[in-house]
Amino acid sequence: MNSLSVSGHIEPDTRLRVTAFPDGSHPFVSLRIEGDSTEIALLAAPGSAEALRALAAAASEAAATLDALTSDAAQVSSHG
């Protein structure tokens, strides 16, 4: 990955878009994460599929953790 730091908030209406650029000599895929005021584009070249799979797995783990945190908070507030 090239050196870059980005910070943004994922909101319920965040949009995701994948676009393939099948150029014969330099094919790549663009993964765009778009919100009202933020847009992040990740460009993935051949050979980086495993990195995208790791990103997807990390996102899935983050979603499950957020679900658990939300569930735990709801249970705590209902007992109080």
Question: What is the general shape?
Answer: elongated
Task: Count the E strands.
Answer: 3
Separate helix tally: 1
Widest sheet: strand order?
1-2-3
Helix content: 25-40%
Q: Biggest β-sheet, characterized?
A: 3 strands, antiparallel
Oligomeric state, counting identical vs distinct chains: single chain
Strand content: 25-35%
Question: Could you explain the architecture of this structure?
Answer:
The structure is a single chain. The chain is α+β, with helices and mostly antiparallel strands and 80 residues long. The chain contains 1 helix and 3 strands; from the N terminus they run E-E-E-H. It starts with 14 loop residues before the first strand and ends with a helix. The model has no long low-confidence stretch (mean pLDDT 89).
